[in-house]
């Protein structure tokens, strides 16, 4: 690449200006080795004036600029700790040119496989920040390590590129989402390559490519065939401004996460996927997975399997007469049925409108309107105050015939159970708070076995023995029974009397699988004009590609943007020839990421989603690394699709991901703020009760000092500051661009620092100054092997390694390092692996000579972490090929044993000190070491040794001649 210098009337360098007619624009090309200097000056090209318009003068001016840049380059070379700016581009080019990390298409069954995968990134316009490479570096270390251990490694990268952000950008700028997406992918790819990740770029995929989403559509058709995809009228999060349905996680405090637009709940006909049909398998198969227990527990809670009963409450009119309407409730505690003193319906319950009294109708409708603006998460939040409205209507408790009022409250969800609950305020905290607020009767029916409930002032939600639980008219008496036995008795009564049945329920809901967006996979279904019947598109017609559109804005009617593409929408049923219309909803962004790990196994296959033999070899993914924010939805959806594909014979394993690792979050650098009162006076943070009541002012780091565990103002140590690190975001201005770090310290330093910050799974705080420590370690490693730089900043072509046999001490240092680094990589404790290499370098600097065999082994140890430097050192050690497939060193147990002992040394029978010796140390060597010891030498210097008593590994006793006077003094 080259930088172009344009001669024009603009300038960045001090010019010599001579009045002259406008100059003809002339371009000169500057050599690529000057570009790093220009990048550090934050410019990609330089414009300057020349004294006249002749070519020779212009070229002279360019020569001056080049000379200046060359001088600057020489100065920077001298200052650099090691020449990473030359090494890293060199080896990145080598890897790309030689396809070093390409995984062969052919299966090699003679070698074990290792499939390591990063969670699919979304290529945003902002590019990477330093938080992204944390997981990528971890997987890259594992991939490089396993290659060197002889594994056939699959380590791919691709893009989850459909979705709302690109569409919103298209609406705002008029740029087609495809253009934006390709531009973002190019930027992400460039950044990832600059950090030296060993991805097989020949397997790169994007969810937006028709060759890929053809198979996403194919999977949808298989779901449709099996009744696992269907349409239903369901309440959804509708955002009028964005013109689309949003998932619950895309709604925060009643507004859209993107743009902050109002979101309402309204019923719409939508495509659904019947994930609930797989609820039990999704739950049971978690036990066999090597996943974090916290993630498995989150999935268990999300699936929310519970056993209980469904029971019917008959609606009664104002005269107490039964109507034909029945409200079915689900409860996990049928034993508490006698304590049900009211019912609660979800605002979206289908019977609600028909139950309203005239007096309450307006109040209920107003309440429903407010409820529909809240997300499910907001409505069920435990800490929030419970609200509700009485419907004016009653129902009959089936076991005792009592009339109980029917309320509507937003803490009950239409999507869970039946959308209605029986409220037992004596034995449920939420119901108790609601009953106390609205003065509803409370009836205690469970007594704790230990009698701890006292006078029943607080709700008791545990089990016990039943009280106040019998009715002669219904014939049900469970008084005195334990809770579990009482539940069984109630269920028997419900089924015998026709008032209910035993029921297993799940919190898990069917997956809402439609979006009113343009930028997504088209759903391969057409609808006949005359009947409205849905007809699947033939598999032979896939992919059904997106039509070109210029207008991506919401239609305002709820119709998706695709409805504007009339020539695409209007079609015919190929079998009957009847006129039809295409489905204009698109799939959600989740769709493409549900199965991409399979496509990486066989990305170019045009006749199948994945070749059976390749899937059987590569599946399942051995290690899957990504953020905990995907713990439930993405992982649950992917597991669901995988199980469907397993049932139809596409995959051979029940689960897609053998081991899942969630890397921690990298927070932005610590920010310091001071509190101020209304008059602008600084207040110490320890005297502030509520931070929100005070103004806060950002304090620059240079004005801050540490005092114990606290941070205070340098100028006024009595003012304690708030020190806090936040998640990186543009709005906080704390985003660190990895490009800047690579430019200043090199990619290997970035990689090492991200691993050295702390355990992979923990959250860490970024500190740019902290990277200097690992940078110094790399520089020391470089100088140890290559030698020091000349005054001009250049280095010898080779190394200082010598062809000599290593000493026992050197072998011990090396093999302890090998053992520790190997163990820590396998345990993904990368920070302690780096510490072990640092200890080795410290030891190596004390050696007089560096045997080649020792240094080569260390370079191989370093290579998964700092691949650019390792490749360069390997080359300088005389090797012509990449070290990517060199055998990873193995520790020799013989050098790991503790072979030294602490030997007590006695002088004339009195212990005077100790020396450290080899277990096999001879008597002569022990005496020699004792005479060199600073504490012992004063007793031995100039003395005559009369006798030596030596027990190998136990003790050395030296008897010396002592003058008579000295003997008296000793006594």
UniProtKB/TrEMBL annotation:
HAMAP family: Leu_tRNA_synth_B. GO terms for biological process: leucyl-tRNA aminoacylation; post-embryonic development; reproductive structure development. Residues 300-495 form the Leucyl-tRNA synthetase editing domain. It comes from the Eukaryota. It catalyses: tRNA(Leu) + L-leucine + ATP = L-leucyl-tRNA(Leu) + AMP + diphosphate. It comes from Anisodus tanguticus. Residues 507-669, 725-755 form the Aminoacyl-tRNA synthetase class Ia domain. This is leucine--tRNA ligase. GO terms for cellular component: cytosol; mitochondrion. GO terms for molecular function: aminoacyl-tRNA deacylase activity; ATP binding; leucine-tRNA ligase activity. Residues 811-919 form the Methionyl/Valyl/Leucyl/Isoleucyl-tRNA synthetase anticodon-binding domain.
């Amino acid at each position: 690449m080259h930088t172009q210098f344009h001669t024009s009337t603009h300038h960045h360098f001090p010019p010599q200006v001579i009045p002259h007619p406008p100059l003809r624009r002339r371009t000169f090309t500057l050599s690529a080795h000057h570009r790093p200097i220009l990048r550090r000056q934050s410019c990609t090209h330089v414009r300057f004036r020349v004294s006249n318009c002749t070519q020779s003068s212009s070229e002279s001016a360019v020569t001056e600029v080049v000379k200046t840049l060359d001088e600057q380059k020489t100065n920077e070379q001298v200052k650099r700790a090691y020449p990473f700016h030359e090494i890293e581009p060199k080896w990145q080019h080598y890897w790309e040119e030689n396809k070093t990390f390409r995984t062969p298409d052919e299966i090699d069954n003679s070698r074990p496989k290792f499939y390591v995968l990063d969670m699919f990134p979304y290529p945003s316009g902002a590019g990477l920040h330093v938080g992204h490479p944390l997981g990528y570096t971890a997987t890259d270390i594992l991939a490089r390590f396993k290659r060197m251990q002889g594994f056939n490694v699959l380590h791919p990268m691709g893009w989850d590129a459909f979705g709302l952000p690109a569409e919103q950008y298209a609406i705002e700028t008029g740029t087609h989402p495809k253009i934006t997406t390709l531009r973002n992918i190019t930027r992400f790819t460039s950044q990832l390559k600059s950090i030296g990740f060993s991805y097989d770029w020949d397997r790169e995929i994007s969810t937006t490519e028709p060759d890929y989403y053809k198979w996403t559509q194919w999977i949808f058709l298989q779901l449709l065939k099996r009744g696992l995809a269907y349409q239903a009228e369901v309440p959804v999060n509708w955002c009028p401004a964005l013109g689309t349905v949003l998932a619950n996680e895309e709604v925060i405090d009643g507004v859209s996460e993107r743009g902050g637009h109002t979101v309402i709940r309204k019923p719409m006909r939508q495509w659904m996927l019947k994930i609930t049909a797989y609820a039990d398998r999704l739950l049971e198969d978690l036990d066999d997975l090597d996943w974090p227990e916290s993630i498995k527990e989150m999935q268990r809670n999300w699936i929310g399997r519970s056993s209980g009963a469904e029971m019917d409450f008959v609606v009664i009119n104002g005269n107490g007469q039964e109507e034909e309407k029945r409200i079915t409730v689900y409860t996990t505690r049928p034993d508490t049925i006698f304590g049900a003193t009211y019912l609660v319906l979800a605002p979206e319950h289908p019977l609600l409108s028909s139950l309203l009294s005239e007096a309450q109708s307006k109040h209920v409708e107003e309440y429903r309107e407010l409820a529909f603006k809240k997300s499910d998460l907001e409505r069920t939040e435990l800490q929030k105050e419970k609200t509700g409205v009485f419907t004016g209507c009653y129902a009959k408790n089936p076991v005792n015939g009592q009339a109980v009022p029917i309320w509507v409250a937003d803490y009950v969800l239409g999507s869970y159970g039946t959308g209605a609950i029986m409220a037992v305020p004596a034995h449920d905290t939420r119901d108790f708070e609601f009953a106390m607020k609205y003065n509803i009767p409370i009836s205690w029916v469970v007594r704790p076995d230990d009698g701890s409930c006292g006078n029943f002032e607080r709700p008791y939600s545990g089990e016990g023995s039943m009280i106040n639980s019998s009715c002669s008219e219904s014939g049900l008496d469970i008084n005195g029974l334990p809770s579990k036995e009482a539940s069984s008795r109630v269920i028997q009564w419900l089924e015998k009397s026709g008032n209910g049945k035993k029921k297993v329920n799940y919190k898990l809901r069917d997956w809402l699988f439609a979006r009113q967006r343009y930028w997504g996979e088209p759903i391969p279904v057409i609808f006949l004009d005359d009947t409205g019947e849905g007809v699947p598109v033939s598999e032979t017609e896939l992919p059904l590609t997106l039509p070109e559109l210029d207008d991506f804005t919401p239609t305002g009617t709820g119709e998706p943007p695709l409805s504007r593409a009339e020539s695409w929408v209007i079609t015919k049923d190929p079998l009957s020839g009847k006129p039809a219309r295409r489905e204009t909803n698109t799939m959600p962004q989740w769709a493409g990421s549900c199965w991409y790990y399979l496509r990486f196994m066989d990305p170019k296959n045009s006749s199948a989603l994945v070749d059976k033999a390749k899937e059987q070899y590569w599946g399942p993914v051995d290690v899957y690394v990504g953020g905990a924010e995907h713990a439930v939805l993405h992982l649950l959806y992917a597991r669901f699709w995988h199980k469907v594909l397993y049932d139809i014979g596409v995959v051979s394993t029940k689960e897609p991901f053998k081991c899942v690792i969630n890397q921690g979050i990298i927070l932005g650098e610590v920010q310091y703020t001071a509190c101020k009162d209304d008059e602008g006076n600084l207040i110490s943070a320890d005297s502030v009760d509520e931070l929100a009541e005070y103004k806060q002012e950002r304090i620059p780091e240079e004005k801050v000092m540490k005092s114990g565990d606290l941070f205070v103002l340098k100028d006024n140590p009595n003012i304690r500051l708030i020190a806090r690190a936040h998640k990186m975001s543009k709005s906080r201005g704390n985003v660190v661009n990895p490009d800047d770090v690579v430019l200043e310290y090199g990619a290997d330093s970035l990689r090492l620092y991200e691993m050295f910050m702390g355990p992979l799974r923990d959250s860490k705080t970024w500190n740019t100054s902290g990277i200097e420590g690992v940078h110094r370690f790399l520089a020391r490693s470089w100088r140890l092997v290559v030698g020091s730089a000349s005054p001009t900043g250049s280095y010898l072509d080779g190394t200082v390694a010598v062809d000599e046999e290593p000493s026992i001490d050197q072998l011990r240092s090396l093999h302890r390092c090998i053992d520790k680094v190997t163990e820590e990589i396998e345990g993904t404790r990368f920070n302690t692996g780096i510490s072990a290499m640092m200890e080795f370098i410290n030891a190596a600097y004390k050696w007089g000579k560096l045997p080649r065999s020792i240094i080569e082994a260390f370079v191989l140890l370093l290579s998964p972490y700092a691949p650019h430097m390792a490749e360069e050192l390997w080359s300088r050690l005389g090797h012509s090929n990449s070290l990517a497939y060199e055998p990873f060193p193995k520790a020799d147990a013989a050098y790991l044993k503790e072979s030294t002992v602490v030997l007590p040394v006695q002088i004339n029978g009195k212990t005077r000190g100790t020396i450290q010796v080899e277990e096999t140390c001879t008597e002569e060597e022990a005496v020699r070491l004792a005479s060199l010891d600073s504490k012992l030498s004063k007793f031995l210097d100039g003395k005559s040794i009369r006798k030596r008593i030596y027990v190998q590994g136990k003790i050395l006793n030296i008897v010396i001649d002592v003058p008579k006077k000295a003997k008296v003094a000793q006594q």
